Structure formats: C-alpha cells, structure tokens
Amino acid sequence: MATLIFNGSLTQFTNGQTECEVHAKNIKSLLGEIREKFPRLSPLIESEGFAIAIDGEIFQDIWFAPISDSSEVHLIPPIGGG
Amino acid sequence: MNDMTQTNLQKDLKIVGTRPLRPDGADKVTGRALFGADKSLPNMLVGRVLRSPHAHAKIISIDTKAAEALPGVKAVITSKDFQDLPSEFVPAGEMMVNFKDMTRNIMARDKVLYEGHTVAAVAAINDAIAEEAMALIKVEYELLPHVMDVEEAEKPNAPLLHDDMITIGVEPAPKKPSNVAKRVEFGFGDLDKGFKEADLIIEKKFSTQPVHQGYIEPHACLASVSEDGQGELWVTTQGPFVVRNFCSKILGMSTSQIRVTASEIGGGFGGKTVIYLEPLALALSRKACRPVKMVMSRQEVLMASGPTSGAKIWVKIGVKKDGRITAGDAVLKFQAGAFQGSPIGPGAMCAFAPYEMTNVRVVGYDIVVNRPKVAAYRAPGGPISEYAVESVMDEIAQKLNLDPLELRLKNAAKEGTQAPYGPKLGPIGMIETLEAAKAHPHYSAPLGPNQGRGVASGFWFNIGGETCTSININEDGTVGLTLGTPDIGGSRASMAMMAAEELGVPMSTIRPIIGDTSSLGFNFLTGGSRVTFSSGMAVVESVREIIVELRKRAAQLWDVSIEKVEWVSGHARLVGSENPKSLSLRELAEAAGKTGGPIVGGASINATGAGPSLATHIVDVEVDPETGRTTVLRYTAIQDAGKAIHPSYVEGQMQGGAVQGIGWALNEEYVYDDNGKLLNPGFLDYRVPVCSDVPMIDTVIVEVPNPKHPYGVRGVGETPIVPPLAAVSNAVSRATNIRFNELPLSPPRVLAAIESR
Amino acid sequence: MSKKHISTVINGDAMEFLASPEQSLLDILREELELTGSKEGCGTGDCGACSIMLDGRLVCSCLVLGVEADGKKIDTIEGMGNGSDMHPLQKKFLEHAALQCGICTPGILIAAKALLEKKPDPTEEEVRYWLAGNLCRCTGYDKIVRAVLDTAADMRTA
To answer: Which domains does chain A have, with CATH numbers?
Structure first.
C-alpha cells in the first residue's frame, strides 16, 4: 500500500489526517480513492488542478503514472512557469 | 511517462555543449524575421480597443450605433458578442485560469475592474477611422470605490470586486464573499518547538511592487475568419496551441476551425502565455469577414496586460548560534489583479525550498484588487517569496557574524531533502552553486567605501508537459525538424544540436522550424523552462525512433536481420563483418521510396522528470549617500543547468534574468494616482535597466545532471530572476548598514532611509 | 487632410510614397513600404527599436514624421549588409549570441554601426552609454557589448 501524505492546508479537508494508505496503482485510481475517502477534498483539487509527486517526481495531468507499493505520494498545486 | 533515462553523460559529445551559430540567426540580424506586427493580408482592417478610464465601475450602458454607422467601420463588438462561460479552471502558465474570468478579462461584461479594462473593440479600414469610431462609442459608467493594496482589500468593508468570491482553501468555506480568492498552506513539523530551540529569531515584513515582464514587442495579432467559419491567426505568443484552445472556447468555435501560427516572438517571459487581443481580432474578423490586425501600444501593454503580483510578505526564521535553521514561518499576500490567479501556490512552495527544513509553514493568500490581472513572469511567485527569505537569511548572517554563503551551506537542500511542500527532492545543485560562489574570485575581491556585497540563492521547479515533434529525412539525407514550442531564446539551435548529436550528422544538415497548430499534435506552451527539457526529450525520442527505421531499411537492403545493423556516426553499419558495409543517411534517403516510402518519425509525450534549477548570485553595489542612487558594480550568476546544450544560450538566460531582477530590485514599479489611474505607462517612467545601468554579468554554469533527461538537461530560463532581488537588496543593506525591506530600492526610498539613520 | 507626396532615398534606392500628416516615418517604413525590420516598441522614442539613420544621424523613426523625410537619405536595418555579405556587426552578434528574441536587434545594430563609424575605438563605458537608448529585455546587454567591442577591435585591424 502506498502512502498518500497531506501537506499544510489540505488537512482541513481530511479531518486533520496527515497520511493515509492507498491501494491505487496509478494517479487516476488515486483520484477515485480520494473521492471516496475524502469527499470534501476532491472538489478542491479537481477544480483547482493539482500535481502529484510520486517518490519526489512531479506529475501534472498524467493519469497513468504508476504508484508502487512503497511509494510516497504528495498532492501539490500545479506548477507552470513564465 | 518517459523512459528517457539519461544515457549520454559519459559519451564523447561532439555537438552538444559547443556554441554553433543559431539556424534562425541571419533573419534576426537583418530585420527579415517576422514578428507579431510584421504581417499583413490583402483587404485587411485595423482593430482598436476601447478601454475603461476607471479603476472600478458598473457599466450601465454601451451605445455603439454612431460608431457602427461611421463610414469605413466594418465591425464593432462588445460583451454581447461573446457568450458568458461558466467557471472552469485550465492551466495557463503556472496559474489555473477560470474561463468565466477569462471571458470577462478580454471584454468586460457588467463591470470594469481596472483602468484599461476592455469595453469594446472596432475594426475599420484605417487607424484614423478606428480611432474616430472609438470616440463615438458612448459608455455610461457608475463609478465604484476601488482598492489597490492587498491589506486594504482584505479589510471587511473593502470595495468588493466580485460578489460571488468565496475564499477557496478554507474549511468551512466563508459565508460572505470577500476579495480573498484563495488560501494555501504548506509545511510540516512543529513550529513552536522549532522556535523555542532557536538562539536567534528574526521576523520581518516585506513589501514588493508589481512589475511588468517588459517585453519590447507589444501584443500583436492578425486574424482572418472566412465565410465558412475557418479561422487563421498569426500571433506573437509563447503558446499557439494554448491560444487556439482559449480562443475556440471563448468564440464558440471548434479547435480545428482555428489555425494558429506563432510569429517570431519579441520577448514573453510568461506574459505572452495568455490572451488579450486574439479573441477580439477573431470576433471582429468573423463579423466583418475580413482580416483584422490588432497591435497594442506600449501604454496599453502597461495599463492592461498582466504584470506580476505586488505583495506583502512576513517571514520569521529561527536559527541556532551556528546558523542551523530550527524553524521557518511565512505569510504571503499576493495581488491577483482584477481576477483570481496570482502565483501564490508556487510562491509559497518556493519560499524555503533552497533549504533543508525540519519545522516550516508557509501560508499564502491570493487577493484581488483593481489592477490588471497578473500574468506569469519568469518563475512566477518565486522571486517574491524567496526575496523575503533570502533577506532574512542575510540579516541572520550579519547578526551571527557568519559568512552568508556558509550559512546557506549549513542549511542547503540536497538530494533526499523533504521540500517544504512535501515530496523529497531529486539531485539538485544548491550546494554546488554555493561552493562555486565561495571559490569565485568575485567573492573575495576588495570593496571600497559606500560599497556592499550581497548574495542570495534561488530555487525554481521547471516543468515538463505535453510535447509533440516530428522529423523527416529529406530525399538528399538532410533533415527537417518540426517543433511545436515557439523559440524565445535560441531553442531552435539546441534542438538541432541534440538531433544532430543523436543522428551523428553535422548540425548544418538539420533545419528546425516551429510548426503551426495544424501540423502537430498539442504542445503545451513555451514557458516553465520546459523547452530544452521537453522538446529536447521529444526530439531525442523522435530521432531514436527514426534510427530504428533507418536500420530496418539498411537491413532490408543487406538482406540481414535488423539486429545485425547498428547506427554509428550517421551511418548504418553491418555489425561484426569482415567486409565492413555501411550506408550513409543520404544513401538510405535516396532509396527511401524504393524501400517503403519516406522516412519520417516523431514523438508525442507528456514529459515528466523535470528537475529544479538552483542558483546563487553575488553582486557588488555602491550607494551614493547624497542621492540614494545604487550603482551595480559587479555581478556573478552561478546556476545549475544539468547539462548546457548550448552554453551561450544558457549564459544568455542567466544574464537576462539577472538584469530583469536588478530592474525589479532597483527601479521598476507602477505608480497610480488616487483614482487608480496609471501615471507611468511608458518606458520613460517605467524604468527598466538600460545598457549603462549594468556591468558585465559574469556567469558560471554548474552541471548536476538531471537523470530523467537523455542529456541531463535542467530548465534554466526562470531561476535566474529569483536571486537578484535579495542579492541586490542585501548588497544595498550592507553598503548602507541599513536593512531594507521594500522594493524597489529607488533613490528616493534609499535616500530617505539614509537621512533618517 | 490629403496626403503629401514624399521623395527619399532609402538604403540607396530612390523611393516615393504618400504620407498623411500624422503618420510617423516608422509607420511609413513599416506600413507603406513594407520595411518591417524597424520595430515599434513604445512609439515615444524610449526604446530605440525603431532606430534608423536620417541623413547620417541616428534617430528614433517613431519621433520623425513621414513628411519630414522629404528629400532625405534614410538607412534602415534592411540596408546594413551588402547582399549576402553581412556587416561585421551582424556577424559578430551571431557569433557572440548577442540576441535572444531579436526584436531589439535591428535598432541596436543600427545604433552600434553609427557608434563605430563615429568612434572606432570605444571603451566599454562609451558603448554602454551610446546604447542606453536601445532597450533589450532578454540579454542583459552583456553579450551585446562584447559583440560591439569585438567588432570594433576587428574593424580596426582590418
């Protein structure tokens, strides 16, 4: 089971939970799991957009980036540039 | 995902890392290259924009009848010509843009929210008639009180810009609307514990002003919509595919109906990742059924196109006597301009990112004010938050009598460090740039009276993103390379270099072009320091794919299996044979038709694995105690590029970003009167650095390869603007022995501080 | 108001055009004569992107009226090279990578050429002050100054 970690203000939407074990094997299924487990968090990240860091590597808008059993996963705002 | 593990580090590189002439160079030094305003079409009309003279007002009525009746006027548009779009966020630069907001920014609906906000547009047979038509448009306004400052805008009775704005990111959501669009927070650890452990705590408030990206070429486009609804758009932009996407949404057209060709671009820096004139030109053209050319004046650029945020920043850092950081806390309040979307997220994430933190918290607020909507500007958000943190670090170094570089080395982030926004960092060059700074002769050069030296480091993420390239082997063995990311700094050269290196052919045989939106699949825009990384990755993948095809053709010709054929130095070679056989690229190309058809390849990726680029800058200044004027005496920029494909263009990014940062630190700001009207919408009084303001910018390129790119590339374009704000401010502080906490450090401000010392 | 008939010599060629009284010389060059090498960056003479030579004098063409050009000799970026043989400044700019986006480059080249014709041996400071009227936002001016100094050195020994 990979570990999903909630940083900072996201914990407001997860009843204070800072970590959670997830079954998801990729980002798409992770989003589904978040929708189920943290219904108040889901609309925030889906409307605002987000990036996901899997073991430190940042993925933006990529559904099938693989999540392994030992992965550490973070939700962060999307990053673009100028 | 890409399995483009970097494989070329150890190879003896022949082209990558050298400094060939850029393939588009002759056109650029002879005036032949065509920029946004350089194209015309037969039967063309001139489009002009009518803008609000007020910072905040309701639009009671707009009467365009007289304008429409003026001979020579072929179309007039207002918000009636655009559908109202629902709230939907899409990426633009580093900010999520809301289509409901975008529709209102390109053309005001019931309210104007900043001086310069578009109210109507006309297309006429010449500029004089268009101008006359604009004067005939009668707009009735009901003035509203306006607000320009984030702290004023937060107050409970502040004028409200949007009556449906409920702060996002706060749970439970506020019941009443406000001007606070969003709250973000990052961090981990125990701040109280961290501060209790500190031997020294410094807490400071900082203030920065909005600054414009300052591209010398104003926004310009030429739109042509035919009677059958097909549209062509020539436009100066960092993202033709993004422009197509946005315009088709706003105009209710399908994506395939608009074909966007990116002109050469006269500077962007993030400011040309959004749309202003483009949907107006298309709408006017659609109405008039004639091409419409629209160009902004410099006044319009400064009044109505996005600067970056001005901000208020609080930073509190606790350290042990030996300089180790025990806790870091920051609050950022960024101006979004008239609509939500300041770079508060990345700004908050970057603030402490150069350092290994155990207890850290950054809270950020995106706040709307009656100013033009902000747009991305080179490492959006980063320079602002890092300016404040790097200033406090310098003050800590002074108070503890520690060398400022040593202080940073003690706390430097490295591979495996947990970033303040959560994930662990991959390999980065923070320590390497600090060591290079320490060892640089600049750092130990003597200083004279009224002179001071400042250092600062900087962090920026860099991005990957959707990228599509195609490659064709011509009949004579030369190569055509089509890219989808506009070239804003010399990237055509780097792409051709990487292709030539992979193929093993001279660079001169490769002709790179930027394709229009009909020639390639979607490419995300040029920005986020992504082109050398992402387009480079796609180019390498395209070439590797075409090499497989070339080996197949050779195998066919030699009647062997493909495993027996290798590709070396631009030739197919039969492996391990006593009679060495080889076929050149040219020979294979000449036989292409006979062996199966044209030899083409391409790549379509969503590039991932972009690594952050770290930098450390050193600057010496002299401050005239009688005038408060700061002269930059010497500047050294040190940055980790991963791998410099073309060192001259990497140096160019470092130098250009440093000088923009110098302008941000010393001169640039918007001056508004009490009515929210801009007093300095021109280059005379919006003072960007000129040639005589700056010395040579010495550069040191450090290379800590990014393992996720075939050549180890890290984006470099944005990081250079991050350190200069604090580096210059720290230098001025050291020169005057006064700690400054606001930008710009223009002579009146510095002088006032010196005189009250 | 009717247009005025104007006769000039541009880059060595006799050229005629009609100018409205309010048109700048820059407008004429770009719109009437399709010489788009000179650029409009500000329209108020602050950025130098429209730099040309008017009777041997370096000017911002956005500050000259089209009608003022009557009987005068104009040199623009399009006339800087000699056929396919580029001016030494143009070649050095490419060698030194003294341009990134290239929008300021025509104006800077015209200004730099005027400097070297007037002063073949400028110091770095003289180059910087001479070019202070030409804004560049991309390069930070470093490679531009190096290219000009290098060209000056080359031209002196040529």
So the answer is: 2-76 (3.10.20.30)
CB contact under 8 A, C143 and B37: no
**d(C-alpha C97, C-alpha C92), whole Å:** 8
Domain count, chain C: 2
CB contact (8 A) between residue B528 and residue A62: no
Contact between B327 and B393 (Cβ < 8 Å): no
The residue out of C79, C111, C138 marking a domain boundary is C79
Find where tokens 């990529």 sit. A62
Domain coordinates in residue numbering, chain B: 25-33+464-607, 381-462+611-755
Question: What size, in residues, is chain C?
Answer: 158
Based on the number of CB atoms within 10 Å of its own CB, is C13 exposed (0-12), middle (13-18) or buried (19 or more)?
Answer: exposed
Token digits of residue B97: 């843009």
Q: Is C93 in the same domain as C74?
A: no
pLDDT digits (tens, 9 = 90+) for B673-692: 999 999 999 999 999 999 99
* End-of-domain residue from the set C12, C45, C79: C79
- What are chain C's partners, defined as 3 or more CB pairs within 8 angstroms? B
- The answer, yes or no, to whether C and A have at least 3 beta-carbon pairs within 8 Å is no
What is the residue range of C57's domain?
4-79
B74/B11 Cα distance (integer angstroms):
62
**Residue at token pair 């547009």:** B121
Quote the tokens at residue B391: 């200033």
For B712-749, what is each residue's pLDDT tens digit? 999 999 999 999 999 999 999 999 999 999 999 999 99
Residue B310, helix vs strand vs coil: coil
Closest CA to B755 of B621, B666, B622, B627: B627
The CATH T-level fold of domain B25-33+464-607 is: Aldehyde Oxidoreductase; domain 4 (3.30.365)
- pTM of the model as a whole: 0.96
Residue C8 β-bridge partners: C15
Q: Which of B320, B455, B440 is nearest to B394 (CA)?
A: B455
Q: Are residues C8 and C35 in the same domain?
A: yes
Domain co-membership, C66 together with C96: no
Question: In this predicted model, what pLDDT tens digit does every residue of B41-75 receive, in sequence order?
Answer: 999 999 999 999 999 999 999 999 999 999 999 99
Per-residue burial over C27-54, b = 16 or more CB atoms within 10 Å of its CB, e = otherwise: bbbbbbbebbbbbbbbbebbbbbbbbbb
How many Å separate Cα B1 from the centre of its chain?
Answer: 24
Rounded to 5°, the CA angle C103-C107-C113 comes to 135
In this structure, the answer to whether residues C55 and C104 fall within a common structural domain is: no
Quick one: closest CA in B to A18, which residue? B188
3-state helix, strand, coil in chain C (%, to 5): 40, 20, 40
B touches C, CB cut-off 8 Å, minimum 3 pairs: yes
Contact B30 C129 (CB under 8 A): no
Residue of C nearest to B653 (CA): C139
Listed range (B12-16, B139-143, B656-660, B665-669) with the worst mean pLDDT: B12-16
Two domains, one topology: B25-33+464-607 and B381-462+611-755:
yes
Q: Give domain B381-462+611-755's CATH number out of 3.40.50.300, 3.30.870.10, 3.40.50.620, 3.30.365.10.
A: 3.30.365.10
The mean predicted confidence, pLDDT, of chain B is: 95
